[in-house]
TrEMBL record:
Single GO MF descriptor: glutathione peroxidase activity
GO BP of this protein: response to oxidative stress
InterPro entries: Glutathione_peroxidase, GPX_CS, Thioredoxin-like_sf
Protein name: Glutathione peroxidase
Segment forming the signal sequence: 1-21
Keyword annotations of the record: Oxidoreductase, Peroxidase, Signal
Family: Belongs to the glutathione peroxidase family.
């Protein structure tokens, strides 16, 4: 979807944990100034509806790529409708990547995820208006190269992680995504520009400010 400036925005997300809830809303970090982009490697991803799309399809858009989950026992599913609204109101493209590495909060099969979002969490007939892809890993030895790249390009936003018993990957590294709904902001050229703590709302003023900066520059 395109907004009033004719561009879309990409931000990468992961989800919510009470042990980390005290972190300040709007906490973010800058990414390195680099010519490297997410399009340098020809990634292809399969959506939950079975359609395979190249990541390059989103070139020229600002996008929010999210590492999301439906089994949030502590209320983070409120972020889903905000991503829908952000895409519609700010002209961003949201890319959703389910992940089961944090508290095993995404245990279902790929074929079950959209139905669970619609009928259970957040429920109420919810349907994401953004692409949701098949599950992948964002941390550890099997982390997808897209997420390895994004983490390498951006400074960490926190040094505090959930208890190790709730992290289902090895090894644990300082630049890891700390929980679900962690977010990365990627510009129109595919360069990582900002990284946000998982409890920063998608519609936070600082997120919208960063989006509009990219739209106008």
């Amino acid at each position: 979807m395109m907004g009033h400036t004719g561009v879309a925005l990409a931000l990468v997300v992961a989800l919510f944990c009470p042990a980390l809830a005290h972190r300040a809303i709007g906490e973010r970090s800058k990414c390195v100034s680099s010519s490297r982009t997410i399009y340098d490697t020809p990634f292809n991803f399969t959506m939950l509806n079975g359609t395979t799309v190249p990541l390059s399809k989103f070139r020229g858009e600002i996008h929010i790529t999210i590492n999301a989950t439906y089994l949030s026992t502590h209320g983070a599913n409120w972020q889903y409708p905000l991503f829908n609204a952000l895409q519609e109101l700010e002209g961003v493209t949201v890319l959703g990547f389910p992940c089961n590495q944090f508290g095993l909060q995404e245990p279902g099969a790929n074929s079950e995820i959209l139905k669970i979002l619609e009928h259970v969490r957040p429920g109420g007939g919810f349907q994401p208006n953004f692409p949701m892809f098949e599950k992948l890993e964002v941390n550890g030895e099997n982390a997808h190269p897209l997420f390895k790249f994004l983490k390498d390009q951006c400074n960490v936003v926190t040094s505090q992680f959930a208890p190790k018993a709730r992290l289902f990957y090895e090894p644990i590294q300082p630049n890891d995504i700390e929980w679900n709904f962690h977010k990365f902001l990627v510009d129109q050229e595919g360069r990582a520009r900002r990284r946000y703590h998982h409890n920063t709302p998608p519609d936070a003023a600082i997120v919208r400010k960063d989006i509009r900066f990219l739209q106008n520059n």
